[in-house]
Amino acid sequence: MDLILEVKNLYKYYPGVKAVDDVSFDIPRGTCFGLLGPNGAGKTTTIEVIEGIQKPDRGTILYKGKPRDQHFKQEVGIQLQHTELQQYLTVKEILLTFRNLYARRATMNELVSLCYLEEILDRDNRKISGGQKQRLLLAIALANDPELLFLDEPTTGLDPQARRHVWDIVKSIKKKGKTIILTTHYMEEAQTLCDIVAIMDRGKIIAMDSPINLLNQHCRGVTITLPSEVDENILRQMSCDWYKVNHTIEIHTEQPHNCLRILIDNDIDITGMVVRSQNLEDLFLKLTGTQLRA
Ligand code: ATP
């Protein structure tokens, strides 16, 4: 297999925190690899170590089969979680500035059309919307026509339309054969964009595969959502996982008929009940639990 990145036994400790604790994975060229996990799981630290922004305590990182060298910085694109841009420059001036940092460059036309920037090219970069700023940051990350693109929570804080615009851009980048490493808290985003997802928790990868294989392995049942709370003694009779989510109850079960029988036998009002097949969000909750994290 043509692997663009190999990460072996990576460790990064902060005082009192095992942020990255023996993480290994391979990324085949041309795939979108998603790193998921609760707050504080170690996603950003992992990708910052791979990007070269932070030094690992231990571990090996190979890019195209070799240790990273000066080519790595020229050939990768990075969209950080937070970026401050130079004041008073227009969107066009920002793009030109970043393009000039590299020997290898995407054309301005490519960047502008791929990231839908035509209408804001002459606007001061401080006077653009959140969605437009994310698209500009994506264009900056693409300025050197990278082979490997890092996107750290590219749609956090965006409205649903702006998020879908970013997804369209990521899909177009994938079609060009580029490799993408993406961190996200949006399970729908991971399911839509990623070929492989790794779920991290407390510095370790606890599951890794294609979304469909992960669901087949871990979530073969259905999710029943009840619009109001139910006595916990009744829920315990079902012998399955259940969660309180925003004043509703989510029941994860491979035996929906058994759960329904218990609800009806206990005279629970099932008006408004929803039954659906399980998705990546259900898997995420199942593997990482619902406790609040750092
Ligand atoms: P989020 O989804 O909230 O961005 P994350 O999965 O990206 O979280 P990291 O930011 O990598 O997680 O943090 C992993 C752990 O390391 C956390 O417990 C965090 O508090 C800790 N940490 C991160 N950066 C530092 C630092 N510079 N010094 C000390 N601890 C840190």
A few lines on this structure:
It is built from eleven helices and 14 strands.
3D architecture notes:
- The chain is of the alpha/beta class and 294 residues long.
- It has two domains: 3-211, P-loop containing nucleotide triphosphate hydrolases (Rossmann fold); 221-277, 2-Layer Sandwich (Alpha-Beta Plaits), CATH 3.30.70.
- The protein has helices at residues 43-51, 70-75, 91-99, 108-114, 130-141, 160-175, 187-193, 211-218, 232-237, 256-265, 280-288, and strands at residues 3-14, 17-28, 32-36, 58-63, 66-67, 76-79, 148-152, 179-183, 196-201, 204-209, 222-226, 241-245, 248-253, 274-277.
- The strands form three sheets. It has a six-stranded mixed beta sheet with strand order 6-7-8-3-9-10, sandwiched between helices.
- Strand 9 and strand 10 (204-209) form a beta hairpin.
- Helix 5 (130-141) runs parallel beside helix 6 (160-175).
- The longest helix is centred in the middle third of the chain and has 16 residues, at 160-175.
- Adenosine-5'-triphosphate (ATP) is lined by residues 14, 17, 19, 37, 39-45, 294.
Question: Any low-confidence stretches, pLDDT <50, length ≥5?
Answer: none
Radius of gyration, CA atoms, in whole angstroms: 22 Å
**N-to-C CA distance:** 37 Å
What number is the mean pLDDT? 92
Write down the domain tally.
2
Order of helices and strands: EEEHEEHEHHHEHEHEEHEHEEHEH
Taken from the alpha-carbon principal axes, the silhouette is globular
Helix-strand makeup class: alpha/beta
Name the CATH superfamily assignment of the largest domain: P-loop containing nucleotide triphosphate hydrolases
Spatial strand sequence of the major β-sheet: 6-7-8-3-9-10
CATH topology of the largest domain: Rossmann fold
Name the ligand types. adenosine-5'-triphosphate
Q: How many strands appear in the DSSP assignment? A: 14
Strand content: 25-35%
Quaternary state of the chains: single chain
How many strands, what sense, and barrel or not for the largest sheet? 6 strands, mixed
Helix count, DSSP H or I runs of 4 or more residues: 11
